[in-house]
Every structure is written in structure tokens, then in C-alpha cells.
Amino acid sequence: MSDQSKQRVTLTVNGEHREAWVFPHESLLDVLRDVLGHYEVRYGCGEGVCGTCTVLVDGEPVSGCLLLAVQADGCSLVTVRGLAPAGDLHPLQACFLRNGAAQCGFCTPGMLLTAWALLQHDPRPSRERIRRELVGNLCRCTGYSKILDAVEEHAAEAAERAGGHG
Amino acid sequence: MAETEVPARQEAYRVVGQSPSHHDFVDKVEGSLLYAADWQLPGLLHGKVVRAEVPCARIAGMEVSAARALPGVVAVLTAADVPWNQVLERPTGGLGELAVAMPVLAADRVRYQGEPIALIAAVTAQIAEQAAELIDVEYDDLPGVFDPERALEPGAPLVHDQGNLLVSWIIARGDAAAALAAADVVVEGEYRTQRVEHAYLEPEAGVGWVDTSGVITLRVSTQVIEHAPTIATILGLPQSKLRVISTYMGGGFGGKEDMTVEPYLALLVWRTRRPVRMVWERQESIMASTKRHPFILRYRTGVQRDGSIVAQEVDIVGDAGAYPYLSPRVLFAACATASGPYRVPNVHHRARAVFTNNAPTSAFRGFGAMQVTFGYEQQMDRVADRLGLTPQAVRERNFLDKGDTIPTGERLDTAVAAGQCLRRALAALGEPARPSGPGRRIGRGFAVNMQPYGRTVWFHDRASCWISLEADGSLLLRSGITDLGAGQAASLAQIASEVLGVPLGEIGVHIGDSQLTPPAGGTFATRQLYMSGNAALAAARALRAGLLPVAAELLGAVPDDLVFEDGMVRERDTGAGRGIRLAELAAACQQRSVPTAHLGTWYAGTGTFDPATGQGASFPDYTFGAHAADVEVDTETGQVRVLGYAAAHDVGRAINPLRVEGQIQGGAYQGLGYALGEEIVVDDGQVASTLLASYLLPNAADLPDVRVIVVESGEGKGPFGARGIGEPPIGNPAATIANAVAAATGVRVTQLPITPERLLAALDAAAGDAR
What is the ipTM of this complex? Predict the structure, then answer.
């Protein structure tokens, strides 16, 4: 394999302009990790089943292992580290922390991004809706209850901040 | 919100019993924690294990020259390149099991599909993959054996020349045969459990490099840094040249208790002298990583008409797969706990681990004490059914109590809150729902269990922890503990904070380094809160005892009147006025040559076990718990829907209640996956599917919230009276669901998992019998 077969892709990652030369067969996951250093996006299965490698591509959650990097050319990506400025936690992350929603933490970034995307579409989802939206993000540690608690709590707080009646 | 009941607390603790967040959890929600695969070094190579494609064969030849010649390949290693090509671990300390060594790389014979046969290091993962495909192996297939009972028959193919019976444990007390013959009623039952995968979200991974002074350093996802001496032996290096660092793990559940990537990574680093990363693919992990033992359990339970158990015979056969790993100990735990939390005056338990040409089985949360719950708790329901008593009444009649003797002949010396757990779990469920439609039936079931915490006492277990007071008044805590995500490290900081009054944010925690942190003995067997928790408590108390007279002198106070809080030592009840900051105290200690660093070591109790009589010392103590569930069975489809689920465990004392709830919810959920869907299907040693997509892990919508009841008896052998809670909650769900399904339908499914197909077949068979 020579570098001639590499292609240039241009991405926005967490608001930052990035360029990378990638092989056409390379997954977005591999490029984010090994080329761009975004280790918060994690390999769990390579089949698009576990949701651990979830990233937001133009606002929608996508499994990074199923998308080729060249397919993401020109897209705007958000990883969990893009949810809040460095050193800060997004209120949803703070709710995860308070509720003990992370144990081993490996699935947490994907879980946060899927939940964040849900809340963009439905700011006050029912617990059942949250369950259904999170089916593509597996967690082996928590039994999900505390993750659901965290998402619900954040939605309630956000509604309160917005002056809603909860 | 999921409801949780936490009891009122009498004692005044400041930090113990609170649920503060700890630094590692901040890192986890931020996404900044660097797991084992997330480590980058200059010139990093990618390592790969080449694995056997067949389960049982002689290796007639292996051609690696094409792989070696591929540009970008830096090393290809086979068995001949391994300085000491065997792992010989005596998991019980040599108490009766066969001495069978496992090769690091198979040389002339493969014994299971996926067994490592060669190693590759290349400049990219892609090239390593290509090189693996260029290795040409010639296999002469041999007859294999894939069923443990078949493996016990005379003339069965031998997995190892030493024989197929790895170990046979007996635990016996009284005269079970005579008592069964004299019993009013004898209930028999046979139960089968399946092979399952840990399925931690983080696959096996690590990065290794040669560090200063030629020390081969492995930064890996492992529960046990104490494998370092074994790895050094494989490389032919002194122990001082081999260092293992454990990362915070992305889950382990026992699957990272044995070595995973370590010896392979170490060999590639040793050979190439370059940094190497190795990450097992999920499919590789499903094929070849260790699994939970499938058990065949046969019970005979003798009872009097009033429900009292007079005798129990249990025979257990566990499929060990192709190599010993921890099977002898798993089967010991099964043998010791096979009668559950009940008084049984006459017992005969036998538990055998048998070699087959399946992937090896080993530690998995619950460790043998889980599978037997599926047996003894269904027996209890069957006894109730036969005697016309309620399942609860039969259990209440037979529950163990403090002071009672268990089958090993030991007396329980802490509280047994099994009955309380059961009553509270049942109460938490409330009124059962009505069936949602025709053909649907509702049933309630429950199961009570006991799970050891701490290693078998023959090991003379111990753990150390170092705590020092720094110049600025902060603490440094060093422990060889490894962290699975349950807050193992955080709980030690909480204990230190409780004793020394230093805010958690001012306690630096350094863990999991075989050369820089004091040995803690590995995170398994629900032992770390008990062992390292007590070690941290000892270190903190020693530090406090050293500081106290200095503080008393400086404050002109009586030592007994002083309290440690908010980073200060001050007189009780005098407010913030009269006190000394720990930073000043540290300086004063320096002046007076008073040590400000202490190593605390906790030694567990010891004892011996006689395998011939089946009597003697076993585990330090047990955690008791009860789960209860309401299910709805669709008799047309065989589908089981869990409507409500409650879990109660006596944790002695909850150090961090939120984490305790998390352990119970997560353990119950894993156990429910085991009950209802998870199974690794193997046909003649070939794994039917290595896809995670084919492995039915429960997702967020499959099951209801687990309602948690934390019972605090105050009696446990851990710090502040705590008991371990890591493993216990996975034990109850399978029997809970089986009993609920039986209550709903009158049909008992005795083979796991309880799939719609199995349940329909059982319903059809029952209908056939009725006709």
C-alpha cells in the first residue's frame, strides 16, 4: 500500500477544522482515534451493535465503525468532548456524574451523545422513549436505570431553566 | 426515577454512607479517561494473535516465511520463540487438581478453536491482519470431546494425557444417603446452565514498551497485576524486569482475572524492543476468551412434612474447556455453596471440572456460586409444591442463622439477613399486575442466595495500602488495587477521608502498578472492599494515631478530644476556632521526626480444607440476598416479559450507597440476560457465531428498572462492617425468573436460557402430558 492511494478528507471535529489523509477502507472510528487522537471514541465491536463508537455526524448519532472516513468528508462531527468546553461538564454530563450513571465508563461517551441527540428532538422524553432511543447503546455495568435517571433529571432541569412547568 | 430504599443510619459517619463522585468518574463522563487501547507511543507496532481454526488437531506443519517477508511485518513468533512456553498455575495451591500446563503458544497440538499458535507485530493493524492470513498451518484433525459427561466416559478422547477429570471435590457432612432414605419426601431435579460471555464493552487490550533499565512494561486492562511473575517466567526475565500497570477497565466481570493479552504483548515487546499495542477484536474475544462454565446440576432433596430439609445430595459437572484456568476454584465455590442459605444437617456435594475441546471456562462474576442458585432455588419451590406449602414458608423454615453450621462444617459468625432480604424484596413488588390479554399469564417468583466474599482462606490472603500526608495537607494513597468501574479506588479514598478528615478532592489515588504500588492481590472474588478496604482503614488509622499526639501537643489538648475534619485537627465541639491545619501538622511532624507515611496490611483469616473428608475452612464470609420478580408469559409465543423486579442484599454497611445500588442493578441485569437470552452456542467445538449481534445482551428497553433494597445489618468483615457486593446480585435472577415462569404456567424450564422456544416446548410437553 502506498500513500498514493490515500485521499484527503476535511472534517470539523468539535468545532475545529481538521484534515486527514486516509485510505478509502479506513473507518471513521480508526481515523478519529489513530490519526486525529480522539480516543474518547472507542472500539467495542466493529459491527455497529454496541454503540460505543457513537459520534454525532451533522447532529445525528452514527456508529463510527460503520462509516468510512471518506464518507464523512465535509461533515461536522461532535464527540463527547465537544459537548462542553474543555474542563467543563455539559449539564447532561453533570447529571450522569450525580446519578452514578457511569461505572466502567466505556459506553458513557456514546450513551451521552445518543441521549443529547434525543433531547434535541424531544426535550422532555418519557422514560419509555429514552429507553427506546438508547437501545443501540449497550451498557454491561449499570442495568441502565441510573442512565435513564440521569437523562430524565437533565430534561427536567432544562425544562425548569427554560421556565417550563416540568 | 428508579425507587430505592435505604435504611435510616444510626452511626455518625461523615463520608462513609455518602455517595460522592470521584475523579475517575469525572474523567469517564468527560471522555478523558485513557483506557488500555488509548495509549500512544512513538514507533508503536500493532500486535496480533494468530489462532487455531480447528478445535482438536495435531499441528503437522506451520509455514510463516511469507508472513515474515511481508513489508511492514516486524516479527512473527511461534512456540519455538517462547523462552518458557508454559503457564502452570495451581489454582487451588495443589489441593487435588491435575497438574496440567498450558502452552503460551501451541506447539504441536491444538485443543480448542481459537487457541493461540503464533504472534505478529507489524507497523499497522492492517498489515498484521494480512500477515496472519499468510501463515499456513497444516492440521491433522484428532477426535475431540465436546461434552463433559461424554469426556468422563471410559475410552473418551483425552484432552490431556493426564486425563479428562481436572478435579473432583466432595463436601460432605452427616449421612445424606441414610437421611434421604428416611425422609418423608425426596424431591429430585436436574438443571442445566449454559456457556456465556462476559461481554465487557472494552475488549482485551494493552500497550507494552521497554522502559528505563530495560523493564518490559505492560499497560493493560487487567484485574490482576499479580500475573507479573508468571509473565517474567515466560520471558525468562527476573521479576524486576517485568512491570504490569492496570488501567481503569472498561468492565471485566472476571474475564480479565486470568491473563488476556499480557504474555503475547510481552513477547512481542521483548522480541522487537519497540512499543506494541494489542487489541483483541470483539469476534476474536467471543471465540476464544474464557467463558462461564456450563453446569449440569443434579439435586436430591429430602424433607419432612413440615418443610424442614433433612438431607441434600448434589452432583455437579462443569465444562472446564481445554485448559485448567480457574476451574478447580470455580467448582470448589459451587461445591461449597450448592445447598444455598439453608440449614441442611446431612449433605453430600460432589463437583467435578472436566476437560473438553471447548474454549476454556474460568472466572465470571458469581464464580460457581451463581449456577448452583439455579438448582437449589428451584428445588425449594419444588419442595413447597410437593408439600402444599408456600415457597416462602419453606424457605423461612430452613434459613441459616448466625451460629449455624454450613456444609463445610464451619459456623457462620456474622448476621444472616436472608429472610429480611426476601420479605423486603417481596414487599417492594407490591400488588401483581393483571394479564394484559388472553393467553397471557402472570406469575411471581423469587430466589435467595449466598455468595462468598474474599478468597478461599487457604491462600493466606492479604492486601496492603500506603497512605501519606503531604506537605500541603493532602493525602496520597497508593494501592495495587485494580478498578473494574465499581469504584474500587474511590472507596479507598472515601475510607481514608472518613478517618483523616481530608476532603476527597485532596486525596490523590495511585493504583494498579506491580512495581510502584503495594500489592493488593487482584480485584476478584468480591474481595477488594473487604481486603484493601481494611488495609486502607489500617493505614489511615496508623497515620491518624501518629498525628494525634503531635496535634494534642500543639493545641494543648487531650488527644481524645480531637477530631479530624475539613483538612484540620480540632477540638470537638469548639467550632472552627481552635485547631491546626494538616499542612501545619505535617511540618510539625517533620520537625519531630514523626512519620507521616504508613503502610497498612490486612491479613485475612486462614485455615485448611481436607479434600478427603470434605470438611474444613472455605471462605471468610458470605453476602446474602433475595430477588423477586413478576413476569407475564405469553403462552402462544413463549415470550416472557419481566413486569417488575426487586433486589435486596445485606451489604453490612454501604460505604457508597449509590455505587452499591449500581452494583445491584447491574448485577441483576446481567443475571437477567443470563436467565432469558444469553448463550454462546458451540457445535463440536466450533463457535456457531462470533458476532456480538448474535449474542443477546439486554438493552435499555428489554427489561424494567431493578428496584433496589439495601439492607445494612452492620455485620460484615470489611471496613465499618461492610460486606462485598460485586458478585452477589448476579446469582439470583435465573432462578427468580424460572420460579416466576413456573408460577405463571405450572411449567418449569430447567435449562438456561429460558428462551421462547424452550418455554413453548415445555408448555407443549405439559399439554401433551395432560391429554
Answer: 0.96
